[in-house]
Each structure stands twice: as C-alpha cells, then as structure tokens.
C-alpha cells in the first residue's frame, strides 16, 4: 500500500520547493529580447539581489548552476599559477577547490573535517606563514550542504585583518542566501556566489557572483579574463545581451522577479526567523528519535554552527537508505542522500541522509516531514526514541 498520491515534497537541499507563483510567472512564451519589458525587469532584479546579499556592491548574473558561479568567481579573482587558500568543512569546499585546480590555480586546503566548523585561528596561522603574501584569496563555504555546518564567515575577515593580509575573502552562499543571516558588507566579504535553486526558490539555471570595489580592482590586474566569465560587462552592459554574454534566461527572469517580490514582501528578518524556528523543530525531533536505543544523530553538535536550511543526519547503515526509500515510495516525501560521508564501514554513506528545509517551506510542511519520518521509522522497525512530533510541535507553538 502506498499513500504517496497527492502533492509531493522534495525535501532535499536543492533544488528547493518552487512556489506556484514562480512557476506560473515562468509559464509563458518567450518575450522580445531586444527591447521592452524583459529589459526593465532584468534591471529591476539588481537592487533586490543586493538587498538579499546585504550589499551595496555589484552583482553579475550567469546562466549556470552553482558550479558555474564557482568558476565565474575564480576566473575573476585569480589566474593560472596563483595560490588560493580553501577552508574545507565538507564536500562543497573541495568541489570549488577542484575547479580552481583545473584552472591551473594552486590550492592550499585547510581541512576541518565533516562535523566541525572553520576555526579561523588556523586560517590566520596559514596567512601569517605566507610572508610573501602570495595567497590571492581565501575561499569559505558559508553553509556546506553536505555536512550542514554553518561557518562564521566574519571570523575569517577578522583573521585576514589581524595579519594585514591583502587576500580577497570569497564566500559560497549557494545554500544559505535568503535562508541564513548573511551580511556581505558588514562581514567584509569581497566576493560571494549564489544560485537560483535554493533559498531563492527558482529552478536551477541562473547563478550570481557578488563582488565589491576591492575585488573589482583586483580583477583589473589579472593578465587575462575569459570573455564569458568576465563580470565587468555584466554589471555595466552597453547592450542588453551583455548582461548574460548572449541570450537572456528569459523565463527564469520572470520567475526570479516574482521570487524576489515574495522575499521583499516577507522581509529578510522574517525569512531568517521562519527558517530558524522550522530548523529548531527538526532538531528537537531528531534529538527525541536519538534517545533510548535510537541511533539518529545530528551531524553538527553545536547548534550555533548548524545550517537553518539543511540538516545532515546519521542513523547507521542501511537505515538511512531504507528510510529515504520508504518515505518516498509510501508517502511522497523525498529526502536528501548522505553526501561526502562514506567510510570503510559504510562505503556508500547509506547511514546518512539530509533534510532540506530551505526557501518556500512552512510549519505544516515541516510537521508533515517529521510525522512522515516517524511513520517510516515505525514501519521499518528502526529503533527510535519517542516524542519527536510533540517536541517539534512545541517549538512551533512556542515561537508563534
Ligand atoms: C548546491 C550547492 C552548490 C552547487 O550548486 P550546483 O547548482 O549543484 O552546481 C555549491 N555550493 C553549495 C554550498 C551548495 O549547496
């Protein structure tokens, strides 16, 4: 017996749930790309994108996913032979570093593992050891979607300033923008990358590289920048096609316009508070499931360092895999796979899974997710402690 008919919930950390308003706005024939409404709408996106990133700097838009934004950011901050420092707290930092390596950029990786946040002290140490100031940039992942750690990006700026190191600070906010508090200017971030398909609630396909005046000046000192990734024409286009170095992502522009309207209407503070409360409901449920014989555990122990938009968990192989299969087949709920968590005992990472709770999610969806996981644990006879639904409901009741 399956109870999966009805509206399904893709609770993975991206692509996230797309609001009907966004889908409807995208469901239209392509507009004129030479003049008219599309041009005005595109221009109108820029101030709202800056609001979401909390910056007065610049933002370039790319027709690409997050990997494209990674490459775009790198192409404008460094060139072959340069060195960058990468702080790794999960798979996504390694993904960004790999792209750099394949561009001929040397990477110096500081590994913090998959259960802990960045410790800026080690970054400061590495910067002090760089006496000839060869490191061009420090790359950090604000929220690493594989480990669900939320790093203190501002602490890395303080480390750079403490040793007067001129390297640019670049942050990956693909998973955190419009979910977790992020203040580009106040935190001294020079470059930031984001994508459309997570907190911004639009299908994958467009991404963003934000940068400030410092990064803009450094870019002009590079000996060459690829035409396609060059951010300069994109922020000051003489002709409309220069925004995208070619055909505009027509339908995405309409979708993003509506998504940004929704973000403006709710307000960033309310959005952050909503994510915070819903995350707390999930954490309290997991803590209950992990009592007694229950083996479910949150990946990040210290709640300050937990993402408010994605939660990585362990439950032991093969239970993570079995649970994901059950909730999808029987109840229409799709959970995220464990990413970057393989070990000799569990080579496929089947003991891990993730909840995506980013963007267009509300209390009833999260209560549905928790109740459905509870049902799966019962159906599969997976040992778990009691009280998860009650504990989650209390978090939501307390906050409202
Ligand atoms: C999703 C994600 C990416 C990659 O985005 P793609 O669109 O899959 O290329 C990069 N960084 C983080 C932190 C992410 O969550």
What do these coordinates show?
The chain starts with 8 loop residues before the first strand and ends with a helix. Strands 2-10-9-8-5-3-4 form a seven-stranded mixed sheet, sandwiched between helices. The chain has a five-stranded mixed sheet with strand order 1-13-14-12-11. Strands 6-7 form a two-stranded antiparallel sheet. The chain has helices at residues 20-26, 37-53, 66-77, 91-102, 120-129, 153-162, 213-220, 232-235, 250-266, 268-289, 319-331, 363-379, 388-399; strands at residues 9-11, 58-62, 83-88, 106-111, 135-141, 143-144, 149-150, 168-172, 191-195, 207-211, 297-298, 310-314, 333-337, 352-356. It has two domains: 9-16 and 268-399, Aspartate Aminotransferase, domain 1 (Alpha-Beta Complex), CATH 3.90.1150.10; 31-264, Type I PLP-dependent aspartate aminotransferase-like (Major domain) (Aspartate Aminotransferase, domain 2, 3-Layer(aba) Sandwich), CATH 3.40.640. The protein is of the alpha/beta class. Pyridoxal-5'-phosphate is lined by residues 14, 65-67, 92, 141, 143-145, 172, 174-175, 195, 204.
